[in-house]
Amino acid sequence: MSTYELETMAPASSDLGKPATEEACWEALTTDTGCEVVVLDERGRVEYCNGLVRRRLGGEDPTHLRDLYQDSIAAERLAFARDAAASDSSVSICGLIRGERRRTVFRALDRAADGTARILMVCRVAGPADLDEGTIEAKQSDGGAIDTLTPREVEVLSLIGRGLSTA
User: Fold this and answer.
1) To 10 degrees, the CA torsion angle through 85, 4, 66, 70?
2) Which of 5, 57, 126, 133 has a CB 3.0–4.6 Å from the CB of 103, allowing a cystine?
3) DSSP letter for each residue of 60-123
4) pLDDT (tens digit, 9 = 90+) per residue, 96-146?
């Protein structure tokens, strides 16, 4: 399945009559924030992804969440997406993806013509402020190169990351 064009995914005009403002906001979200933006359905099928996601995949359009993550991570992320859709709210998680601490937020959108829930997924590098009370720690992670380190090397790396001496 190919992705929708940016114009197709842009929000419909609001009751305030400001579609240009909404389109500008959508464009800013998908191109200017440095976030990976994906619209998927409750089955994990990708309906839209921005250029940042495509570049990470070597120019390919993902068709399913499994194209973005290892199977165990994709399954966990899909469960979070379904939780957001079921509660008609957002779910915020943090976890390691390719060795980077990432914050991902799932937000319920609308339902497709067939009744399938649609979810907005926005992912970016996590900062210290992202560890708030409402953020869930992901159980499935991809440590990337960190996974090859010994427990002691991880401990030392953690100390260095906090600016502490390793001596």
Assistant:
1) -100
2) 126
3) PPPSBGGGTS-HHHHHHHHHHHHHHHHHTSEEEEEEEETTEEEEEEEEEEEE-TTS-EEEEEEE
4) 888 888 999 999 999 888 989 999 999 998 887 777 777 888 888 887 777
